[in-house]
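Handoff note, outgoing to incoming analyst
You'll be picking up this chain. Sequence as last confirmed:
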Amino acid sequence: MNHSLHAGRLTATSRFAVIAGKLIKYGFGSLLAQLGVSRFPWNCRRACTLSKDMTPSARLRRVIEELGPAPVKIGQLLSMRPDLIPLELCDELKGLQEDVRRERFEDVRAVVEEAYGTALENLFIEFEAEPVAAASLSQVHRARRKDTGALVAVKVQRPGIRKILAADLEIMAFLAGLANERIISLRTARLPDIVAEVHKSILRELDFTNEARSMLLFNQIFAEEPRVFAPDVHPDLARESVLVMSFVQGRRLDMFHGDPETRRDLALLGLNATVRQMLEYGFFHADPHLGNLKIVDEDKICFFDFGMCGRLTPDMRSALVDYIVALAKNDPTRVAQVAMDMAVSVPPLMDEQRFEADVMFILEGMHVPLGEVNLGRFLLDLTNLCRDYGIFLRSDYILMARALLSIEAAGRVVDPDFDSLEALRPVAARYSLRRMVPGLSDKTLLDNLEQRMDELVNLPRRITKLLDTAVAGKLSVELHQSDFGHFPDQLRLIGNRLGGALITAALIIGSTLVYISDVGPHWNGVPALGVAGFSVSGLLGVFLAWKMFRGT
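Most recent structure output, in case you need it:
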């Protein structure tokens, strides 16, 4: 497999040097040496002197923080994916601090004017130079539209962030490919798949028109529920790098001091809003943490930052209903089955009984708690368990679990006694009842029979297609060699030895011809060039023999 950085991309190659320097600084140089990407392996293997008492996860977080806003965003995305990385690393990356460095107003102006093709003053009569918020990919400025006079929030992408992210993602893909090829113990981590998943999420979030569509859809979903909303988007000013929305003034949940009944009502409102998005529409805000929620007018919740949203197909929504009902009924068998139904792949020889027993163990903590009931933690523990068994879950399922965890945590900030599992029991009862009513159920017997009949009818066509592919000679079989590890290094070593031997032989033959032909200049009556050639070839021969006897 060919893993290389594009040499023509100066940004990627220079950025790689910076990243390698940070990795060496925090003790990851030996990993670079294993990958064979360092020209100076002794520098790579030197001990880390800055972080002797830090765990590898903590050291990696420090590397990401020092590399700037683009890697911070990648780290934040990975912190939401316990299916892709170990739970310990997820917890560590959740502590990543947003890059609060403010961009110069001149640079912000340039991004806005490039997006709209006109001067900033032609669009806004007011535009505050100091941002009201700054994140890893963007910052938000308060402004006032020139044509309508409306007070708006203008979300502006950081200048040059696309170029840096493109370089960092290319480097991640390069290193992931090398690690997957050369370090056998890391192959089960599926590093190239992780990079591909992160790449897809980053590309979607970099296009602010996607966020604008999500906000419009969210407000459509809750059109008849005025207590749940998102800022109104100004579609005429939506661009890839700039997003204009209504300016909403509210309070963070941790700054709200209402009476206990209002707090309990708000916590329940947030959970019900999240579950409704998932079950009824298959679309949901995937990151409803404290920073993305505000309380408005004492009894309303405003959702911000729709850069990351999840989608659930009808089958996945039906599985989620099964999931909630199974949790409410404390049914580990059904929980385990739903987890496998929602997976991309399940190992064919997996011990399902043992998996179910492990699910039963972590489910006991939900129904016989020693402390507070924590639905979100259960979902993360279940995700971690699936990864240990080689069950690879769908990305939208993971986003769903993270959304429930975040909204539960936010609910507990508002109401410390909030019990998310108890709040879900009425939802489970309602959907269980709906399944008994024809026309209302999300999973009718007729639908299941129709789906199975379609699969049976299409089976001959699929077999015929497979046979046609084989007859046409286009049927391919993918083989994976498990011991490929250091094979490229061995080939490189053999090539170097053969090249050295050929050069030595050529020097000997050339020097002999020069000596016989008596071509000048001469030294003590003998051809100097011939003597020099014999000397160099002799040294090379001795060096090659020494390397062969050492076995290196």
